[in-house]
Specification:
By secondary structure, the protein is mainly α. Helices cover 81% and strands 0% of the residues.
Length: 187
């Protein structure tokens, strides 16, 4: 039964995650945290972090991670197949249709109207992860409970990425080093 649940959950994620990995995060959160309780919000944040540090799409990495956690290697295979199956089918069908009708204005209008929804999904997931990182819980963000070390590391990372155009890999490595150094100093 758990294999069917994993397959169907990640099939839904694969079917409805238009806009790529970041847009899939709210769907993944809805399935693995809210609907099934397979992960806590803190574990979900860790999942996103791990998925960002490993090669491959977030949704597939998430499917593999959750599948292994819940049902071992067979669970990982079932969840990953559920996640990629809709994409394989849809991309094949849509590529053929797009090549045939790419100059039709109605198609371009539909694609343009999907962009704001995708941006909203990405922003929603980002805010949810940000709140969890700074306050540890999405349900009650209190200024007194703010993890100021993480806020400062976040600000430094934004500065390095936006102003100095630093490579994201180096920024992630530096963020880890900064947090480890603060942890060592605090003892």
């Amino acid at each position: 039964m758990i294999y069917l649940q994993l397959f169907l959950s990640f099939l839904q994620i694969g079917l409805f995650s238009f806009g790529g990995g970041y847009a899939a995060m709210p769907l993944i959160q809805s399935q693995v945290v809210t609907a099934h309780g397979w992960l806590s919000m803190s574990e979900f944040t860790d999942l996103i972090t791990i998925s960002q540090m490993t090669p491959g799409p977030i949704a597939i990495n998430s499917a593999t991670f959750v599948g292994i956690k819940i049902a071992g290697l067979p669970g990982a295979l079932v969840a990953t197949i559920g996640c990629i199956l809709p994409s394989c089918i849809l991309v094949t069908l849509i590529a053929g249709l797009y090549l045939k009708y790419q100059n039709v204005n109605a198609l371009q209008s539909v694609l343009n109207s999907l962009r704001p929804a995708v941006v909203a999904m990405i922003a929603s997931a980002g805010i949810s992860i940000l709140v969890t990182a700074f306050w540890g819980s999405e349900t009650h963000a209190v200024l007194a409970e703010t993890n100021w070390t993480l806020v400062i590391i976040f600000a430094v990372c934004i500065l390095l990425l936006r102003k100095f155009k630093m490579n994201p890999i180096w920024v992630m490595l530096l963020a880890g080093i900064m947090n480890a150094a603060v942890s060592l100093i605090r003892g």
